[in-house]
Design goal:
- 72% of the residues lie in helices and 0% in strands.
- With 183 residues, it is an all-alpha fold.
- It has one domain: Transmembrane di-heme cytochromes, Chain C (Fumarate Reductase Cytochrome B subunit, Up-down Bundle), CATH 1.20.950.
- The structure holds protoporphyrin IX containing FE.
């Protein structure tokens, strides 16, 4: 039987940190760009960044999920309490789900609202959703609500990573950060 890997592979680590960095930029951009009183050029730049990076991110996130399906995660430390294993599994599942829900609802909100996604338009990517105000409003609500859910779970995820890295020092932090087995 093949031995379980002790650390995430290079591609998994790269995809994790690229997606993490992009999401950590997308969230403040999304929160700021909808505020009243923002200078128009700043708002336009934030919308441009948010819509186009978000659309590209959907592709990277799908690659990340595909990679994860075909490459097992290394096992958690044996002495980790069972409830922490369950919370980890549940929160990772929710993170993957929200990483899909966010760009998809964002895309629907923008297209059903009749707005451009400049880079997709420039490369001639077809508009997949017809204009529809009710659909745009529902997608907007879902995008905002899922965004708050994502922020809550990200806070839990980052808190757990710090707990493993600083308190338990059990190698769980290191295996997403650097190569090679560690216990
Ligand atoms: C992982 C990807 C994404 C994340 C984490 C994200 C996050 C957010 C957040 C936190 C907000 C603020 C919600 C609020 O409080 O009103 C927001 C708003 C918004 N996002 Fe995204 N977003 C993502 C992808 C996208 C994509 C792909 C698009 C469009 C192509 C998009 C379009 C929008 C729009 C138009 C708003 C303003 C909402 C409205 O006024 O209806 N987002 N996003």
């Amino acid at each position: 039987m093949a031995q379980e890997p002790k650390s995430y592979d290079r591609v998994a680590r790269l995809l994790h940190w690229v997606v993490a960095a992009a999401i950590l930029l997308m969230i403040p951009a999304g929160l700021v760009m909808v505020r009243d009183g923002l200078p128009r050029p700043v708002q336009d730049a934030l919308f441009f960044f948010h819509k186009n990076t978000g659309a590209a991110l959907l592709v990277v996130i799908m690659l990340r999920i595909l990679w994860r399906i075909f490459h097992h995660a290394p096992p958690l430390p044996r002495d980790l309490p069972n409830w922490q294993r369950k919370v980890a599994g549940l929160s990772h599942g929710l993170l993957y789900a929200l990483m899909i829900v966010m760009p998809v609802t964002g895309y629907i909100r923008v297209r059903a609202g009749g707005f451009p996604i400049e880079v997709l338009d420039a490369i001639g990517f077809p508009v997949l959703i017809p204009r529809n105000k009710a659909l745009a409003d529902t997608a907007s609500w879902l995008h905002e609500t899922a965004g708050w859910g994502l922020m809550a779970i990200l806070a839990l995820h980052i808190g757990a990573a710090l707990y493993h890295g600083l308190v338990r020092r059990d190698g769980v932090w290191g295996r997403m950060w650097r190569r090679g087995p560690r216990t």
